[in-house]
């Protein structure tokens, strides 16, 4: 089992999932982010959580955030229109982590570096041939990490996630459609919505990350984590309307409309180059991860949608609640 664990980029939904998994096992952890107020709001009620702020542009601040850490889980996000920062932030984090003697780094990655899929499904050893700027920046980020592993300065591994959804996951292809379904309104999706797709339920991710970081054989390469099966955007939204007992109402916008809206919305503008993921989806084969870890539980889509809708009906509360007194280790889903 790893020693002190630090979650860099803890405020995102994946960070919260990993924190919940650590809390469930009674394991202390450090949450690292820019805003103390945000971190305190999300994790301050958990006595297992240590709140640390950092400024990645200040080497001393990076070292302080990494001090005393055995395993660093890297989930640092950037605005969708600032992907050029990914390699820069990784370089600064690695320099500080290596200087402080951090042993392990787990990067939560994406399918972007694969580019257009050569095979379906995509195995872990699929060539990384990004066809987008975002994919190139993510690959450069990965290359920096893997180079430090190859040089023996740190142990590194990458866990690749597909699109994700779940309670309080607002940056999802599905979120606005779920909101519309709850309101009995027409859901608007970015099309096409019928090609095969996969999603991971965010609460499933944390326990898998913990199992991966504790497995010595995991380091030195990347691993795919596939969704809970192949589905489509249409099927996911149809299930939401079905559970709500309402007839499904849908409209879709194509790439041209996304490009037009992008004239006024920077996020939509940046989405245009990633539209290929809807027309030529990257469906992942995670058989090697399952062979490594054994059990890789995934919430079925119908149950994940049920939990997501239930959470959306309730007022938002702190994501990490106080942990019960734990005596040791007693175990989802971007």
TrEMBL record:
Any one GO molecular function term: aldehyde dehydrogenase (NAD+) activity
Gene3D superfamilies linked to this entry: NAD(P)-binding Rossmann-like Domain (3.40.50.720)
CDD domains assigned to the protein according to its UniProt record, in alphabetical order: SDR_a3
Domain called NAD-dependent epimerase/dehydratase: residue spans: 7-225
GO CC terms of this entry: cytoplasm
Residue spans of biased composition, Low complexity class: 322-334
Protein name as it appears in the record: Epimerase
A Pfam family of this chain: Epimerase
Superkingdom, natural source: Bacteria
Positions of region (Disordered): 313-334
């Amino acid at each position: 089992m790893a020693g002190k664990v630090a979650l860099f980029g803890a405020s995102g939904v994946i960070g919260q999932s990993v924190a919940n998994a650590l809390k469930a096992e009674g394991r202390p952890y450090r949450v690292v982010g820019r805003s103390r107020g945000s971190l305190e709001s999300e994790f301050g009620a958990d006595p297992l959580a240590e709140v640390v702020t950092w400024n990645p542009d200040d080497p001393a601040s990076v070292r302080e955030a990494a001090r005393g850490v055995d395993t660093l889980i890297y989930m640092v996000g950037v605005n969708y229109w600032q992907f050029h920062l990914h390699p820069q932030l990784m370089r600064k984090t690695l320099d500080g982590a290596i200087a402080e003697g951090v042993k392990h780094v787990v990067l939560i990655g994406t399918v972007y570096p694969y580019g257009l899929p050569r095979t379906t499904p995509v195995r872990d050893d699929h060539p990384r041939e990004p066809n987008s700027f975002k994919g190139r920046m993510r690959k450069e980020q990965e290359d920096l990490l893997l180079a430090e592993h190859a040089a023996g300065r740190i142990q590194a591994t990458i866990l690749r996630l597909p699109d994700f959804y779940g309670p309080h996951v607002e940056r999802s292809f599905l979120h606005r459609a779920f909101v519309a379904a709850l309101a009995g309104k027409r859901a608007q999706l970015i099309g096409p919505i019928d090609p095969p797709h996969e999603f991971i339920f965010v609460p499933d991710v944390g326990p898998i990350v913990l199992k991966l970081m504790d497995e010595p054989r995991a380091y030195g390469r990347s691993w795919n984590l596939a969704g809970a099966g192949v589905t489509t955007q249409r099927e996911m939204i149809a299930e939401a309307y079905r559970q709500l007992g309402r007839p499904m109402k849908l409209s879709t916008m194509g790439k041209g409309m996304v490009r037009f809206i992008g004239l006024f919305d920077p996020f939509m503008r940046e989405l245009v180059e990633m539209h290929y993921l809807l027309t030529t989806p990257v469906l992942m084969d995670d058989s090697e991860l399952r062979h490594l870890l054994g059990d890789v539980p995934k919430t079925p889509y119908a149950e994940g949608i049920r939990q997501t809708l239930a959470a959306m009906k309730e007022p938002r509360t702190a994501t990490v609640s106080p942990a019960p007194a734990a005596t040791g280790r007693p175990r989802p889903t971007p």
